[in-house]
Specification:
The complex is a heterodimer of chains A (312) and B (183). By secondary structure, chain A is an alpha+beta fold. Chain A is 32% helix and 23% strand. Chain A has 3 domains: 7-54, Uridine Diphospho-n-acetylenolpyruvylglucosamine Reductase, domain 2, CATH 3.30.43.10; 62-185, Uridine Diphospho-n-acetylenolpyruvylglucosamine Reductase, domain 3; 189-306, Enolase-like, domain 1 (2-Layer Sandwich). Chain A contains 12 helices and 12 strands. In chain B, helix 2 packs antiparallel against helix 5. Classes of the chains: A alpha+beta (312), B alpha+beta (183).
Chain lengths: 312, 183
């Protein structure tokens, strides 16, 4: 399989990238980052741009740090972490800061694809492609992250729900806009569990959960699912059942049972491996597993200290 | 459409070549430069037969454009043996443990194994299997592959962890977790 013909342009900076996108607008340009969604799309004929703008060499788009300074990775102690769009999955996994403060994101990243792909794929590319069944959109939505973009009209910040089209609207990224970073608010606990699709490696069903607690009571819960619908979706019934409840297995299980309540099996994705009905059926099980992982982190102490493996 | 003159280092040799925008790294390595170690398998970033080291990271060269590697350093399996042709310990152990049958996946397996052992010198069998998730073998059933990686880790241990052997046991290797119910 060969990609179709296209022109290739390497951008030296964000401004340069925006200028290249503008200059080659007639060629329907696409942005090339890690390339692990775009190159397969080119080979399969799902995309046929006549120009690619490679942002892979823009160091300002790479790194993990406080919101103040992604480039240097400086930690200002702010209660959020900024992740440059070009940051690879492998870099996310190596970040102690994210392991501690954004466990839902590192959890999801640790079961994403395979070692080689984690070395190359980027968070910005993942969220922009937002393949159905991709893990990070669910984690990002549950994490209540904000996606920052630059475009012809300057910079803007888009909440994850709007960026991913999880709020019913179309995904918010416009033509010739470029994701620059993802900002993730720090949370007490989170977890992700997935049933891997045996053919694609994406999630047949994946559930991301974030919990905030106070003295054993859940004060905030955000639960999001991937793989079931074309786009990620919040599981509102589960969230409603969790808030105000005690952090214990019984309540988690009861809440998780409501995971399929708001999704019609007829609307769910279906293929040779799993019907829509089966996907909806799986939701409760994976919601429970994701929540259990989050609860384990609550038990391990606010903020937690360990990696996903510590909780096994 | 446009061609591009690129310079890269392959197995410590600097090379210059002219590639189409759309030329994949695996094709540039095989067809332009004669490094046939990286194999063309699924061509869709699933099988890992094309795995090479790009600036120190194991990547699938079917999913990298050659032009993206301008200025980069690539190592293929041809770069593993030393100048006298003596095999790298990982290669030796794949041979000793018979961690292959047809051998088509082996260059990719060896490359990913090197990446694994550099970050995790003493992996469990479970960790080995997870690390090799992106390298598909249709012959062996993986048993001997895992044996080979274990043996390679043991073979490399004294030389690479000298002075760190005491602390090696304290490192928490469980950076990945078994997905509940996966598979």
């Amino acid at each position: 399989m060969f990609p179709p013909q296209f022109d290739y342009h390497r951008a030296s900076s964000i401004d340069d990238a925006l200028e290249l996108l503008e200059r080659h607008a007639a060629d329907d340009p696409r942005i090339l980052a890690g390339g692990h969604s775009l190159l397969p799309d080119l080979k399969n004929g799902r995309a046929s741009p006549r120009a690619l703008v490679d942002i892979g060499e823009i160091d300002a788009l790479r790194g993990i740090g406080s919101g103040a300074d992604v480039e240097s990775g400086a930690d200002s102690g702010a209660d959020e972490t900024a992740i440059g769009a070009l940051t690879t999955y492998a870099d996310i996994l190596e970040s102690d800061r994210l392991q501690r403060h954004a466990p839902v994101l590192t959890d999801a990243t640790s079961v994403l694809a395979d070692l080689q792909i984690r070395n190359r794929g980027t968070i910005g590319g993942n969220l922009t492609a937002a393949e159905p069944g991709a893990d990070l959109p669910a984690a990002t939505l549950a994490a209540d992250a904000t996606v920052r973009v630059r475009g012809p009209d300057g910079e803007r910040a888009i909440d994850a729900a709007a960026f991913l089209g999880a709020d019913g609207s179309e995904p918010a990224l416009r033509e010739r806009e470029l994701v620059t970073e993802v900002r993730v608010p720090h949370v007490e606990a989170g977890g992700y569990a997935k049933k891997t699709h045996p053919a694609s490696g994406y999630a047949m069903v994946g559930v991301a959960a974030v919990l905030e607690t106070d003295d054993g009571t859940i004060t905030d819960a955000r639960v999001a699912a991937t793989g079931v619908l074309e786009r990620v979706v919040r599981l509102a019934a589960v969230e409603d059942a969790l808030v105000g409840a005690r952090v214990e297995s019984k309540t988690i299980e009861a809440a998780a049972e409501r995971a399929g309540e708001t999704i019609e099996p007829a609307d769910a994705r279906s293929d040779d491996h799993a019907s829509g009905e089966f996907r909806v059926h799986l939701l409760s099980t994976y919601a429970e597993r994701a929540l259990e992982r989050a609860v384990d982190r609550v038990a391990a102490g606010a903020g937690g200290t360990g990696t996903a493996g510590d909780l096994e | 459409m446009a061609t591009h003159d690129i310079e890269l280092t392959v197995n410590e040799t600097e090379v210059e070549l002219t590639v189409d925008s759309r030329t994949l790294l695996v094709h540039a390595l095989r067809d332009e430069l004669g490094y046939t170690g990286p194999k063309v398998g699924c061509e869709s970033s699933k099988c890992g037969a094309c795995t090479v080291e790009l600036d120190g990271d194991a990547v699938k060269s079917c999913t990298v454009l050659a032009v993206q590697t301008d200025g980069a350093s690539v190592q293929t399996v041809e770069g593993f043996a030393d100048e006298d042709g003596e095999l790298h310990p990982i290669q030796e152990q794949f041979s000793a443990e018979h961690g292959l049958q047809c051998g088509y996946c082996t260059p990719g397996m060896v490359t990913t194994t090197k990446h694994l052992l550099e970050s995790n010198p003493d992996p469990s069998r479970e960790e080995i299997r997870k690390a090799l998730k992106g390298n598909i073998c249709r012959c062996t059933g993986y048993q001997n592959v895992v044996d080979a990686v274990e043996s390679a880790a043991a073979a490399l241990a004294p030389a690479e962890s000298e002075g760190e052997s005491a602390s090696g046991d304290d490192v928490d290797l469980r950076t990945d977790y078994p997905t509940p119910g996966e598979d």
